[in-house]
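Sequence dictates fold. Next comes a concrete instance:
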Amino acid sequence: MTARNGRGLLHLAAALDQQGAYDAASSVDLARLAEYGALDFVTLGDTFARPGLDALAVLSRIAPATGRIGLVPTVTTTHTEPFHVQAAVATLDWVSRGRAGWQLDVSTSEGEARLFGRRHAAAADTLWQEAGEVADVAARLWDSWEDDAEIRDESTGRFIDRDKLHYVDFEGSTFSVKGPSIVPRPPQGHPVRVVDATDRHARRTAARYADVAVIRVAGPAQARALRTELRDGAAEFGRNPDSLRVLAGLTVDLGDGEHAAEPGHGGGGPRQTAQGPLYRGGPVDLAELIASWHEAEAADGFHLTPVEPRRDLERLVNGTVALLQHRGLFRTFYPGSTLREHLGLGRPANQYAAAGRTP
């Protein structure tokens, strides 16, 4: 689908993070609100650095309570077992019927390392190299079952066609995996992989493996430069740059009304803070900011983190999103059912099935 300005439609996502929330019910309500606005996906952060609920488990609870919106938990690749991580993400894809994603992250602190006692903290570039290997082996494991590997033939008692299961035999710098997976190939083939590429150490991994890269910068020129860098990097790895969606990450505070606009921005922002760019203003100016960045090819869309989740998400959906829909820049309904379809991404071919075909 194409927007009225000639570019593709915007992609919009929102964070569900709530400080000190220890029940899933409030997250379910927020996810339903985001789905009402036809957002591409919601994210839920997770880290070993602070207490909180397991993001992947919470989104598994949200999956049956929603029908279209994508569900993207943060799951660290540090101190976790790659085989278990890919199986859990594949399970979320099955539970949600093809709406799962996975935001890869790394754990850099010695405090996090002590929780596990297996190794000391490592440098960010080393950890992101490992994260890339985890992303690689996850895709191999998702492909280790061909789509028609399950035969479920009661007459012969055969459940699986063993010729359509594949060993991945992966050797990484810190782990090895034989495979195959214990979970059949996910509905999307590969659940959507998301990487926050603001940190330069993460950009190589994002360019090579991510379906969605998030960049947190305060100006459209910076965003456009980073988007170009990531797309060029994807091309260098033999990928089609158009298979990578680059979203601008922005924290939004929609509770204080409209503010005097600065040149090139609405609502007096965004302004760079220690936590990243912050927009403080009203829904109307936020819609203008999003539209102007999209028109300037600074980003393919936005990942928005509400300061106060319930209040700001309501104003985002009923104000900003409605205005963007009215301008023909954002969808009014979900034309597909999977997260890949929302993002305009194809279902990947199975690398083992493709390798086994004869010309």
The chain is about 35% helix and 20% strand. The longest helix spans residues 124-142.
